TrEMBL record:
Coiled coil: none annotated. Pathway: Amino-acid biosynthesis; L-valine biosynthesis; L-valine from pyruvate: step 4/4; Amino-acid biosynthesis; L-isoleucine biosynthesis; L-isoleucine from 2-oxobutanoate: step 4/4; Amino-acid biosynthesis; L-leucine biosynthesis; L-leucine from 3-methyl-2-oxobutanoate: step 4/4. SUPFAM superfamilies: D-aminoacid aminotransferase-like PLP-dependent enzymes. This is branched-chain-amino-acid transaminase. It comes from the Bacteria. It catalyses: L-valine + 2-oxoglutarate = 3-methyl-2-oxobutanoate + L-glutamate; L-isoleucine + 2-oxoglutarate = (S)-3-methyl-2-oxopentanoate + L-glutamate; L-leucine + 2-oxoglutarate = 4-methyl-2-oxopentanoate + L-glutamate. Gene3D superfamilies: 3.30.470.10, D-amino Acid Aminotransferase, subunit A, domain 2 (3.20.10.10). It is an enzyme of class 2 (transferase).
Length: 285
């Protein structure tokens, strides 16, 4: 996991260099994606590339690569890093200007494009046996959380607040509602049905969220996409966080609150089992 890709060239990660005038560095003016790789094959790549195009469009940053170029760059990066299970990270920033100025450069600069791979680390075994812990943190992020932007300071602060409280992930809340994690989508299970906040400017439209909702359809489980009051923590049977690199993570403790019976639940078990079958199946076809 040492070969990276920068502006069209593969190179050792340690040799990758960008300008300090890059707008990604100065302003967090960029968009990113994270795609999981199972057995050398990307999972849900087209959905990630769709979301990339959406995010780029929302900040008026042109996509410097075609779909075919993204696919082939990612395939080569995965191969150069030894195949198997990986997570591929890639980002596009608005490039290096001649000076620091907030407004977008005119004419357009050449965007800076970067990609790297990391090992796809399996979740700690205690998540499946005992469940993970979450810590409630007020959501202070901007009102365009639907854009997958590289400016992640509020997310980083929330994650660190969770760690400082001895928890694994932050559970963001705003105006009395549960929103999502610092880097994961929120699901509750209540009376056998899945509940998750609706898409919109206050959450990232998670790819795993769509995968889980489609799974629910196939498994005959009802899904309700609706705002979730914080009081739901007391009434729900299960709470999960989902993401591309962590799949479905069961949470059994939120600060002092025990979720359900305090063990990862049967609905989680069924969904995680089915998801892991699909990641391998889809990726090997
Ligand atoms: N919510 C936030 C804020 C995220 O950063 C992420 C992913 O990193 C997610 C949700 C989950 O999205 P996905 O399932 O596409 O990985």
């Amino acid at each position: 996991h040492e070969t990276a890709w920068l502006n069209g060239e593969f190179l050792p990660l340690q040799e990758a260099r960008i300008s300090p005038l890059d707008r990604g560095f100065l302003f967090g003016d960029g968009i990113y994606e994270v795609v999981p790789i199972y057995d050398g094959q990307p999972f849900e790549l087209e959905a990630h590339l769709d979301r990339l195009e959406y995010s780029l469009g929302e900040i008026r940053l042109r996509n410097p690569l075609s779909r075919a170029q993204w696919r082939s760059m990612i395939a080569e990066l995965v191969e150069r890093n030894g195949g198997g299970d990986q997570t591929v990270y890639f980002q596009i920033t608005r490039g290096a200007d001649s000076q620091r100025d907030h407004g977008f450069p005119d004419p357009d600069l050449a965007p800076t494009c970067f990609a790297m791979s990391s090992p796809l680390a399996p979740a700690p075994a205690r998540f499946a046996s005992d469940g993970a812990r979450a810590h409630l943190v007020e959501d202070i992020r901007w009102r365009r959380c639907d854009i997958k932007a590289t400016g992640l300071l509020a997310n980083a602060m929330a994650k660190q607040a969770a760690r400082d409280a001895g928890a694994d992930e932050a559970l963001l809340h705003r105006d009395g509602q549960l929103i999502e994690g610092s880097s994961m989508t929120l699901f509750l299970v209540e009376n056998g049905a899945l509940l998750t906040p609706p898409k919109g400017p206050s959450i990232l439209p998670g790819i795993t969220r769509d995968v889980v909702i489609n799974l629910a359809r196939d498994l005959g489980v009802a899904v309700e996409e609706a705002p979730l009051a914080m009081t739901r923590l007391q009434s729900c049977d299960e709470l999960w966080f989902t993401s591309s690199s962590r799949e479905i993570m069961p949470v059994t403790q939120v600060d002092g609150i025990t979720i359900g019976d305090g063990r990862p639940g049967p609905v989680w078990q069924r969904f995680q089992q089915t998801l892991s079958e699909r990641t391998r199946v889809q990726s090997s076809t």
